[in-house]
Amino acid sequence: MDWISGLFTEHTFIQAILILSLISAVGLAFGSIRIFGVSLGVTCVFFTGIIAGHFGIDINPEMLELSQNFGLIIFIYSLGVQVGPGFFSAFKKGGVKLNILAIMLLVTGTLTMCAAYWITDISIADAVGLFAGAVTNTPMLGAAQQALAQINPADTDSINSMAMACAIGYPVGLISMILCVAIMRRTYPANIFSKRRADASDSTFIAEYMVSNPDIFGKSIHEIRLGTDSQFVISRIWKDGKVIIPTSETTIEKGEHILVISDKKDVESIRKIFGHRQNVDWNKKDIDWNAIDNQLVSRKILVTKPELNGVKLGSLRLRNSFGINITRINRAGMDLLPSKSLRLQLGDKVTIVGEARSIENAGKILGNEAKQLRTPNLPAIFIGIIAGLVLGSIPLAIPGIGMPIKLGIAGGPIIIGILMGAFGPRLHLSTYMSQSANLMLRQLGLTIYLAGLGLSAGAGFFETVLTNEGLTWVIVSAILAIVPVLITGLVAARLFKTDYAQTIGMLCGGMANPIALNFANSITRSDEPSAAYATVYPLSIFLRVISAQIIIMIFA
Could you tell me if 546 and 426 lie in one domain? Predict the structure, then answer.
């Protein structure tokens, strides 16, 4: 039976896969156990890896590094692709505010680290290492080590000590961030999740108006649109006792009732255009749209034809060809108002109002065959990963800094993932993945990454922690992880009025903490934290890499 023990001890590729798979399976099993209603989920894989490393289990270092980094790349790139379609829309709505808060998080954390360096006897190398671990940012650690090596190449002890400090601070940072997410959960109203998830997932608003503004009597919808900056779609008009689907040439007359779809922020300006808003709630989820008129129906049609990926909606001339009206387009969970210049993407859900036969004919143009979306475009995934790694490896010269910086294997792939998700269709490159396929890819990458990370940090972990110096490092790491997060979270909630999902997503992105993000997603049961995470992550990781090098150059 020696072959069995050799299977788990000899450094082969089979042994590496077996060990990582075993750590992942055990960690996921224990992570599914709920204690007081809370489970660690995939986070438990990391701690299982630490325990395995503590008991002397190891694999080939090169295989460990490959699997760990490749898992991180898959997770980060898939996250970017998932949030890419709605990224720039989200950025316009709150991205500037979220990035300001992320910068505040960085500044607060840096000042806290400097205070810890001055108050304690921790060296600047160890302080930066603890800071990198507390914010779970390995590119920051790498940048600091490179800066220290350029300043004093012979000081290998400080460089190695910095890595050990990061290994101590990393799990403390993970636990502390999850603790902060749970604490902040208690500061928000109990009903905030359902209310604000609904607000965020559907920024469009449906309202009924009775035309009473004399300035628009007898004017066509096209003429009315020319006189306003507000974007809207008139879904139905009650004209002469009948419900009709309007065209751009349809005229609006006094006393007619119209159903208008617009952005929530434009509701008041649209009321001024048309007149009295009726006290009818058209935004309820249980409205039977098909019962409004027995001739008109409302259906959602999927865009599944590859040749339509990136095509402008107006070029299809669906309204004129079939006498239908497109009222909304749902993309990655976000409702968009249709316009002639809006480019379609595979997987878009197009809400169409019209006669059943006309909608069926329009559906043939768009595809509407869900089975065509079941297979992801694998070449696009690998092309995106390649481009992300190339971008992350480009040295960027910053004025006043003697050495170039790099975005690394985390910064490059998420930027390319966002760009591919947002602009891939314009190049007729299909990046669509079903939500389940993307979730599977993200979870697989994150699990492999955590298994390798825990295994690499496990050897000597507990021995170091249980020394006086180790205990000091643990306390400082906890302070570095908790204090900036709670301060920034409080400012976000009280001054910037951000909701819970946005706040924790921003904090997880600013702290580069994908594990806490996964925990946050499980609490909110939405992708809102992921969207906020991706909104701040690129700038945050860029600034942390720069700040680490600047700190070393100033204090070392």
Answer: yes
**Residue 149: how many CB atoms within 10 A of its CB?**
16
Residue closest to 147 by CA, chosen among 133, 132, 167: 132
Q: Are 432 and 376 in contact (CB under 8 A)?
A: yes
Q: Are residues 278 and 344 in the same domain?
A: yes
The CA distance from 75 to 533, in Å, is: 13
Q: Given 330, 352, 372, which residue is the final one in a domain?
A: 372
Q: Is residue 54 part of a domain?
A: no
Q: Is residue 7 part of a domain?
A: no
268 and 144 share one domain: no
pTM of the model: 0.68
Write out the chain's pLDDT in tens, 556 residues. 676 777 777 788 888 899 999 999 999 998 888 776 556 677 788 788 888 988 888 888 889 888 888 988 898 888 788 777 766 766 666 678 888 999 999 999 999 999 999 998 889 989 998 998 898 876 677 667 767 777 777 777 787 778 778 878 888 888 888 888 888 877 665 444 444 444 444 457 888 898 888 888 888 888 888 878 777 888 888 887 788 888 778 888 888 888 888 877 788 888 888 888 888 888 777 676 666 665 677 788 888 888 888 888 888 888 778 878 888 888 766 677 788 888 888 888 888 888 788 888 888 889 888 777 777 778 888 999 999 999 888 887 767 666 676 777 767 888 888 888 878 777 767 777 777 788 888 889 888 988 887 887 777 777 777 788 888 999 999 999 999 999 999 898 888 888 888 888 899 888 877 777 877 777 776 667 877 887 887 778 778 877 887 888 788 6
Return d(Cα 225, Cα 174) in angstroms, integer: 52
Interatomic CA distance for residues 330 and 320, integer angstroms? 22
